[in-house]
Amino acid sequence: MYQKKIWCPFCSSPKIFENLDIPAKKTGSPDSLKHENKIEYKRYICQGCEREFDNNPIFQIIEALFVKLSHSKCLFFYLRSQLEELKNEIPASCNQDASKLLTGSKIVFKDLFENPTDPFSQVFLAGDFRLIGGSDHVKAIKNLVAWNSAKFLSQSYEQFETYLKDVASKTLNINKKYLDSIKKSDYKNYKKSSLSSNDDNDWRMFVGYVLKNSTGILKFLKQVYPEIKKAEKQNYRNIDLEEWLEVFSEVRHAVTHSDQFLKADRVRSWPHSKKKILASYFSGDYNDENGSLLHITDHILYDDLKLIAEYSFLVYKSWSIAEGFEWEYFEKKHN
Ligand SMILES: [Zn+2]
Q1: What torsion do the CA atoms of 257, 261, 262, 263 make, to the nearest 10 degrees?
Q2: pLDDT digits (tens, 9 = 90+) for 72-84
Q3: pLDDT tens digits, residue range 230-272?
Q4: Which of 40, 86, 251, 280 is most buried, most CB within 10 Å of its CB?
């Protein structure tokens, strides 16, 4: 999905650009041209829509993430509506026995003791659907929808982490000076060849090894681009994004390793603000006594996908302004 070729950020036309050979804009902070020695600044004009754009090296990274997030949203929506339709198809007459509805769905298997050359090969049919009523079937469909929304949510966390990793790798690749923001003792044994490499993949390996996860990577990015920190604490949502990410990380852990069960002993000591985030952004029915099974509704999933996009955009915008690149490449609409 991630493509290296250049395309117009406004109309997506490929390969129809001319280099305008215009120097970097002298706007932004006094440091905004610090990239000049590390990456050649280029401007293009699109022969399709005639708009200008630059070679912001992280635009394609955020674009790749947005494609993945929107695709997840679209696939989940489709899956959910198909499963809802299936639920509605169950007639009242199936309430006691759903076997007619499930015709042809039994498991077909063979006997492994069978000789491969046996001319009288046999199969067995298993799964007696007379034991399943229509209401069990409806319940299983509901569970499948819930399971899928939790899986999509957990996958989006990993996509966000990959995005952060790609941005941090690009940052270090463009300017090795940023290595100063990482404690030397954390990487002093790391192979030296990578530290002078210009290959994004080498830096990705380095970032994974030294900064480890989204928390570590964001800590590094915030040191280099302190603007990120401001909006993490003061934003239109009135939440602490750092706390949101910590809660999200715990939710992802529950989805991946604990069958969607959020254990009370992992949450009980959280401050009120984090519990509030858990309730409004992830699952409304957690209790400190026994923990709870996560209940990720479609609204919760869509809102978290939106917040991942917003957090990623915050990193992208802060990065672009600090490095002297343009960032206004996304379509704007009024609410
Ligand atoms: Zn264009």
Answers
A1: -90
A2: 999 999 999 999 9
A3: 999 999 999 999 999 999 999 999 999 999 999 999 999 999 9
A4: 251
When computed from its CA atoms, the radius of gyration of the chain, rounded to whole angstroms, is 26
Ion ligand 1 — residues with CB < 5 Å: 8, 10-11, 13, 46, 48-49
Report the C-alpha gap between 147 and 158 in whole angstroms.
17
Give residues with Cβ within 8 angstroms of 107, minimum separation 6.
125, 126, 127
Ligand 1 center–CA 13 separation, angstroms: 6
C-alpha 327 to ligand 1 mean position (Å) = 15
Kindly compute the dihedral angle of the four CA atoms of residues 318, 169, 75, 129, in this order, to the nearest 10 degrees. -130
Q: What is the pTM of this model?
A: 0.88
User: What is the Å distance from ligand 1's center to 21 Cα?
Assistant: 18
- Centroid of ligand 1 to alpha carbon of 32 (angstroms): 26
